[in-house]
Amino acid sequence: MQDKFEPKPHWDEQSEGEQELARVGAALYAQALQKRRQPAVPEAVEQTDSEELETLSQELKLRQKCQDIAAWAMVDDLIENELDDEEE
Hints:
- The chain is an all-alpha fold.
- Helix content is 68%, strand content 0%.
- It contains two helices and no strands.
- Helix 1 runs antiparallel to helix 2.
- The mean pLDDT is 77.
């Protein structure tokens, strides 16, 4: 019985299709992050009170989370489609 830890590789050698899928997924995620970073603040922010600013802040945070979720969903769909294509 051995007590030492032997790490196993997480990835086998990837095919070109898997590499392309990973690149597309990374590009979609980067695009979603870029959109997340772009401020969507109305021009009249200076004239709003603190309650309105808090509401706006919560709305922007929710939009960011939705964009992140959408990006991950797109990546999941791409992976599922690629796996389905390989099974056929």
